[in-house]
Amino acid sequence: MLSPSSIIFCSLILRRTLFTSEVIPKGNSHIHVLMTITDFLDHHHEVAIETGPAIRVSDDKHVHFVKGTTTLDDGHVHQLEFATLIQKPLV
To answer: Measured between alpha carbons, how far is 85 from 54 in angstroms, rounded to an integer?
Structure first.
């Protein structure tokens, strides 16, 4: 059986992001704001969260670490912790 955090993680992957901000300069790097709604068997939470700064993985590619909490729904929240994916990883 999936744990509640696994369900939210899977749901975030399956549900497309509703909004990802443009680059927001921060210090010597940048962040983004991510907003989405998770849904799993009629169980919903909203997520509005800032990424961490860019983490360089090559000369022209980077990822972001994301950590935060969903909205309080049905008497509980879910903790989120993940990294964004690399756009065009093989190019």
So the answer is: 12
Q: Please list the pLDDT of the chain residue by residue as tens digits (91 residues).
A: 445 554 445 444 445 556 788 899 999 999 999 888 877 777 888 888 999 999 999 888 999 999 999 899 889 988 888 888 877 666 6
Per the CB < 8 A criterion, the answer to whether 58 and 77 are in contact is no
Where do the structural domains in the chain lie, given as residue ranges?
A: 4-83
Q: What single letter denotes the amino acid at residue 16?
A: R
Specify the pTM: 0.72
Answer whether 51's CB lies under 8 Å from 64's CB: yes
